[in-house]
Design goal:
The protein is mostly helical. It is 68% helix and 4% strand. β2 and β3 form a beta hairpin. α5 runs antiparallel to α6 and α9 runs antiparallel to α10. The relative contact order is 0.11.
């Protein structure tokens, strides 16, 4: 075999046997993306059993592809497989919600702290703030929730790290599972419209330290508010 790796035994020649895997893997990832979005939007609420037959038929994919997508989302903690029962959208425990916020605080505050010199590229943050304000004017509180998620994804994207983006995509998708259980979406999300704008204004002004302080207080208050609301929501059915 020469240095280019084109000999008969090994090198790139052997990769031809793996070509079929690319199609299956990419299809499964695309299916996972679709289902992840639908779960985040509340189309499949927590506790919903996902039917292989109906979902596979709707998307026009094989059972093996769908099962691989389920496996990917189970790894992301969005789905759970129950023996002899099937695959379900995960129902978070209160401890899960608290852990999600601890992770958010570690990552998001570190991103802001690690920003370089201003000016900072805040166009994505500004668009998310405008999106949330427009949804609030329309009384679309689920839309406000989505805009809030977009704000925090854009905030983390300031790090310019694909790995951090991927981590937070999963964390924020998990968080939406908690949001869908809480009934009063307006009370949950409305207070953070102004707080997002305050963080944006601080970054626009180049005040990185002030933005980090605002964000830390924001997340501390949010874990208390969301955690309490979620605990009430998951306790009430058991008491009914």
């Amino acid at each position: 075999m020469d240095a280019s790796g084109t000999g008969r035994t090994g090198g790139t020649g052997a990769l031809a046997d793996d070509r079929a895997l690319l199609g299956r893997t990419s299809t499964a990832e695309r299916v996972a993306d679709i289902l992840r979005t639908r779960i985040a939007e509340g189309f499949f609420p927590p506790g919903t059993r996902l039917s292989e037959e109906s979902i596979g038929g709707a998307l026009g994919v094989s059972r093996n592809t769908l099962r691989e997508a389920f496996r990917l989302l189970t790894h992301e903690r969005l789905l759970v497989h129950e023996l002899n029962r099937g695959v379900f959208v995960r129902v978070l425990a209160v401890d899960d919600v608290e852990d999600i916020y601890r992770t958010r605080r570690l990552v998001e505050c570190a991103v802001v702290r690690g920003l370089g010199s201003p000016p900072f590229p805040v166009a994505g943050l500004a668009a998310a703030v405008a999106e949330g304000e427009a949804a609030a004017r329309d009384g679309d509180w689920r839309g406000v929730s989505t805009a809030n998620i977009h704000f925090h994804r854009e905030l983390v994207a300031l790090a310019g790290s694909a790995r951090t983006d991927e981590l937070m995509r999963g964390v924020l998708a998990e968080l939406r599972l908690a949001f869908h259980v809480v009934d009063d979406a307006r009370a949950l999300h409305e207070p953070y419209l102004q707080r997002n704008k305050e963080i944006l204004d601080a970054l626009r002004a180049g005040e990185r330290a002030a933005a980090e302080r605002l964000l830390a207080r924001y997340l501390d208050d949010s874990i208390a508010r969301v955690g309490a609301a979620y605990a009430r929501a998951v306790d009430e059915p058991a008491e009914g």
